[in-house]
Amino acid sequence: MNVFSGMNDQFLRMVWLDDLVRAGITSLGLDPASRIGGSVQFFVYDVIKIFILLSVLIFAISYVQSHFPPERTRAILGGRSGIGANILAALLGTLTPFCSCSSIPLFIGFTAAGLPLAVTFSFLISSPLVDLASVILLASIFSWPIALTYVATGLVVAVIGGTVIGRLQMEDQVATFARAARVGAEIPRMTRTERLAYARDQVGDIIHRVWPYVLVGVAIGAAIHNWIPAEAIATLLGQDKWWAVPVATLIGIPIYADIFGTLPIAEALVAKGVGLGTVLAFMMAVTALSLPSLIMLKRVVRLPLLFTFVGVVTLGILAIGFLFNAITPLFV
Predict the structure, then answer these.
(1) Contact in structure between 97 and 65 (CB atoms under 8 Å)
(2) Fewest Cβ atoms closer than 10 Å to its Cβ: which of 5, 137, 147, 155?
(3) What's the whole-number mean pLDDT along residues 81-97?
């Protein structure tokens, strides 16, 4: 266990990098214990750590993902129904390191291929909410139990959300053009060289897409960590406040960011005493219910189905938030 913990500290938490940045800050005449020095140390360390982990993880995950293009995913899910299909769709969603907006075209493709609405929505919820990179990044900031718990609860939300939407039989609420979109049946095959090139390109593409959110997220995290008094945050989002989870969820919805940009904020909030469930609710709202993705989804589905989707996912997020605030001592 000590060996695993040591490897986790060095390779994921990058304690060596923290020590290096702290020494560099000190050599510049800044005190890491001061507000300014602490903010600079938090910002530099988190930015470097996140981009190192992102580059390595996205390359590895994209190589795996190259084996599951949309055509193959449709082939795997085709003809399946029931809770088993929803679980499979949610699991396949974890293999797509896309933001919520990028998942909409896949949703259209699955709908056009005739997949059940329950299956497509399980995928749509899971894809931005949970991915393999988030497991590693969460473990690097918090711990493996918290990371695995986040992934498990995200999959539960995706499976239950898709199941509920499927039971409501709202297929007529999907736009006609989405149901009639052309779907290629051929499954493209890639050589190992092509897969490596694809993974390399994905690293560049995703880093290019998320870097502003990472910088903003780390900057907000640094401000929360070093400038906002814990008492002020506790007044609004303290574990003893029943409204903390709903407020965190509402705050998260207008924000458009990947999980990579929300992690530094979550780290700072937990350090200030905000409940784990409240932080998870915030992260889930940002990734699964961001306003831009809802605007895009509105072009594909009609308002009754859109409101149903938002309602089901929101209820799932709230339930998970309250649950994990109650069992937080298990993770301490």
Answers:
(1) yes
(2) 5
(3) 78
Q: What is the per-residue pLDDT for 246?
A: 92
For the chain, first and last CA: distance in Å?
Answer: 17
Nearest one of 246, 245, 247, 253 to 275, comparing CA atoms = 245
Q: Is the distance from CB of 267 to CB of 141 less than 8 angstroms?
A: yes
Single out the residue of 237, 236, 231 nearest to residue 277, CA to CA: 237
| pLDDT digit string, tens, across residues 3-14 | 556 666 666 678
* Three-class SS state of 174: strand
Rounded CA-CA distance 332/330 in Å is: 6
Give CA–CA dist 52/207, Å, rounded: 11
Round the average pLDDT of the chain to a whole number and report it.
Answer: 79
Dihedral (CA of 294, 299, 301, 303) sign = positive
Alpha carbons 187 and 285: distance in angstroms, whole number: 34
- Contact present, 93 and 158 (Cβ < 8 Å): yes
Give the 3-state DSSP-derived string for 45-74, with helices as H, strands as E and coil as C: HHHHHHHHHHHHHHHHHHHHHCCCCHHHHH
Give which of 75, 138, 74 is closest to 110, Cα–Cα. Answer: 74
